[in-house]
Amino acid sequence: MPPFNNGVLAESFQGRAFHSMPRVHVEQCGTAGLIEVVAYAATAAEAQTNANQAPEHLARAAMETFGPGVRVSIIRRATSARRTSTFHP
Would strands 34-39 and 24-29 be described as parallel, antiparallel, or unpaired? Predict the structure, then answer.
């Protein structure tokens, strides 16, 4: 895993990166160092918009926190979103 992944996955970092998008977070995807943006919202369109804006927030926060040696690549933008239900006990 690349050295910055643990820092990016930390809750405190995500809070700074996505402070204006509280229902956005990142998750590690496999062991290759890939990180996936997960966005929840009231509508599928809003979730898709948040998912597409989040990588820029992530990149900016990573460079501010870890310095210019960090490289963030956007592999794939969100092209769709789906409505799901979540259960909160």
Answer: antiparallel
